[in-house]
Amino acid sequence: MPKIAPHFSKKLIAWYLQNKRELPWRNTLDPYRIWLSEIMLQQTRVLQGLPYYLKFVEAYPKVEDLANAPEDDVLKLWQGLGYYSRARNLHATAKIVSEEMSGVFPDNYKGLLKLKGVGDYTASAIASISFNQPEAVVDGNVYRVLSRFFGISTPINITAGQKEFKTLAQQLIDRAQPGTFNQAIMEFGARFCVPQNPDCGNCIFNENCWAFQQKRVAELPVKIKAKPVKKRFFNYMVVLSENEQTILQQRTGKGIWQKLYEFPLIETSEEMNLSALKNLQQFEDFSKGLNIEDISLFNEKSVIHKLSHQHLNTRFWIVEISEEKESSIPISEVKNYAVPVLIADFVSEFFENY
């Protein structure tokens, strides 16, 4: 464990109080709103998450409002923010807090940690900000600041590294104002000690920063190389009837986009032409009961939708039928369903005249 630098916390907090961004969740100690902001900002930049936060607190000003909302409405409001398991966990936790805890969030780290979708980082953030408990947060920004300042080369994506950084952050936290310290170190990492080309010459810590003094800023933090990206091939069958009806299906598996809606999907091992597609059992299953008159390809070049660890190579096939099935919906209603951004972009382009 590196030697703790004197005055690190005080200098960091002083910087924060002079330079912090004015954000709505920084003007409240309400654990509901702190929790909401922290869940939204997981793997999401502040500028992207801010409008979603404002929409959610307007639609659901209290945890009971969120708990009473239909899940489809919550997913629809979340649409575009990605990592939809966060939204499902958000809704499930709101129900638990509302129905089993009388709308009152646990006021301590261990209690918060038991909530669905709440891990060490989120529990620490809520406990420190809402309840003034000295629980240090550790996220990507914190890893970056601490690894560079103290010269720590332990990989941040292994258990030993996570424990080392958590222990160090816990030693550094200002016990008199833990919430302010946590927000300060995250803000400093997000806005000053950035991943690429930080302005080290004007950094408040440059005289004591190990990485800057050793000219090794770009090397830290260390992260073990991730698994290779998996390629998947999606073929969406966009059914259109003469009466302007189409078909949407809800994803029920445990993979990506659980409980979101999409057009009937045929996933293949490679990109396929129509002739090859028609020879698949999946296509035969899809086409049962449909009086297909014509099939045409909407996008010759696949749309590549990038997710963490996988790239979806996607083509949309327009399937014209003479009469709709009982499960069909009007094309004009597609926009009311919670769908992945990939589908939403297609709908916006293809159905703009409907």
UniProtKB/TrEMBL annotation:
SUPFAM superfamilies for this protein: DNA-glycosylase, Nudix
GO molecular function: 4 iron, 4 sulfur cluster binding; 8-oxo-7,8-dihydroguanine DNA N-glycosylase activity; adenine/guanine mispair binding; metal ion binding; oxidized purine DNA binding; purine-specific mismatch base pair DNA N-glycosylase activity
Gene3D superfamilies: Helix-hairpin-Helix base-excision DNA repair enzymes (C-terminal) (1.10.1670.10), Hypothetical protein, domain 2 (1.10.340.30), Nucleoside Triphosphate Pyrophosphohydrolase (3.90.79.10)
GO biological process: base-excision repair; mismatch repair
Top EC category: hydrolase
Ranges for domain HhH-GPD: 40-191
Listed cofactors: [4Fe-4S] cluster
Catalysed reactions listed for this entry: Hydrolyzes free adenine bases from 7,8-dihydro-8-oxoguanine:adenine mismatched double-stranded DNA, leaving an apurinic site
SMART domains hit by this protein: ENDO3c
Keyword Chloroplast in record: no
Enzyme Commission code(s) on record: 3.2.2.31
Entry's cofactor comment: Binds 1 [4Fe-4S] cluster.
Top-rank taxon, per record: Bacteria
InterPro entries per UniProt: A/G_AdeGlyc_MutY, DNA_glycosylase, HhH-GPD_domain, HhH_base_excis_C, HhH_motif, MIG/MutY, MutY_C, NUDIX_hydrolase-like_dom_sf
Keywords attached to this entry: 4Fe-4S, DNA damage, DNA repair, Glycosidase, Hydrolase, Iron, Iron-sulfur, Metal-binding
Family label: Belongs to the Nth/MutY family.
PANTHER family, per the entry: ADENINE DNA GLYCOSYLASE (PTHR42944)
Annotated function: Adenine glycosylase active on G-A mispairs. MutY also corrects error-prone DNA synthesis past GO lesions which are due to the oxidatively damaged form of guanine: 7,8-dihydro-8-oxoguanine (8-oxo-dGTP).
Name by which UniProt lists this protein: Adenine DNA glycosylase
